[in-house]
Amino acid sequence: MAGGKHFQSLRYAALIVAAAAAPVLADQAPKAAAAAPQAGLLAITPGQSDDDDIAVTDENSSTTPGIVVKARPTGWKEKFRGSSASFSSSVGSGTFVADEFADSPYLDTSLSLSLRYKLARKHSLTAGWGLTYELSTPDNAEGRRFTPNNTTLGYGYSYGPLVAKINLSASARIALPTSYESQYNGTIFNLTVGPNLSRSFLKDKLTLALTSRFTKYVPNSPNRGLRNGDPNTGTGKTQTGETPNYASAYCREGANFCSGGSLNANYSFYNSLSLSYSFTEKLSASLSAGVTNIFKYSVPEVNSDPNLPLTGRSDTTEGGLSVSYQLTPRYSLSGGFQSSMPALSDDQTSIRFPIYDFTSPSNNYTSWFASLDAVY
Q1: Dihedral sign (CA 44, 47, 51, 57)
Q2: Could you tell me which of 97, 132, 195, 309 has the fewest CB atoms within 10 Å of its CB?
């Protein structure tokens, strides 16, 4: 499985966990809300904006609508409501392909941590980090198994319902280069901002959500790769005198998606649509699809083919299906598949199916996962 693609898969797994972690208790809500004043509890109704809601949320997901009954905050610990952790394992689709075009099998286990702190009624701070350990034989030049993710610091604002019961929230997030790929790219930081819109139907059992994001990448050079010199000479030149331009990440054999070319990304637009449904009090499912349009730094005209555009672009798609079962109010199990891949086929003549890679399963663009999720 390609390095860059794997980071995106982890980011999407976090989205699925957040969307499915809090099923709606639709049929018990009226009784619970009516009993709340006598029990000294606080009832949160659909559309009400209160950051004390224990449903999992982050800057890339919308709050699961419904009625939640909870104890009133009693101390500083209550400000961390919504913090979560997820332990998961995934297996790449290429693991099941046995022909001369197959990628090597891929199996990993990962841990994702998300911290949430309530500032005020509609304001919150978030922090996130994760890591992955490859269980299969690594297919990279260094034989590396351990892969850290970028560290994210964010701010969220929940506006509440707009017209036609549409809920609005917005977020801003900075990603710090703690992943190997970002360090190889020379990333200083990445800034992401954007809104979330959601609307519930069928007595809050069905939720439709739209997420949009703009990201500005801030590297130390328009070119990808380390620029601190050759480790053999300790200078900014190689032993033969050339300026080094090391690859940003090692791809698995036959895969090119992880490197993306010699130029760094300048900015990108991301849009996704998700649909979630609560079958019972404990069982829910989520389906999502998204596309990212990445615009790279421009090539100097003197070095560019006059028949090609100066600014490069790459489009990727993400999608997946997740089913979640609530074990307790704090713990849940989820499983399904997730995909992250180039938008176009290898020959650039057709658009790939955005949710599952049917055309080239040996590339490990799609993986199957199972996870245990905990919410504070």
Answers
A1: positive
A2: 309
